[in-house]
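Q: Got a minute? One more chain.
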Amino acid sequence: MASFVPKDEGTLEDQRLYTQARLVEVSCQDCLARVGVKKNSEHHTSIQWSEQALRDCQEFARLGSSPSGRQVHTPCSRLVASIEDAVRNGTVTIGAHDGY
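A: Always. Here it is, folded:
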């Protein structure tokens, strides 16, 4: 349960901008899971996973079935490669705009 549930319109808009602004849909070139991606810098990539994308990701399914389970912060290497390709071809741009 959330310890803080924003109600102020300004806070809700900031939350929306932070989590959804400038997201570009990227499909994994392997399993076709679709996620929202934005890159605020060369080293910062924000990925928003939907429930469907989590179900579609074959690498996460393999990692999740291992005895130790999937590490929460372990990225999908195939999706990372797909995002890097999207950056190279200009689909995903680098740099924050208006702070987002």
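A: The longest helix spans residues 9-20.
Q: Perfect, thanks.
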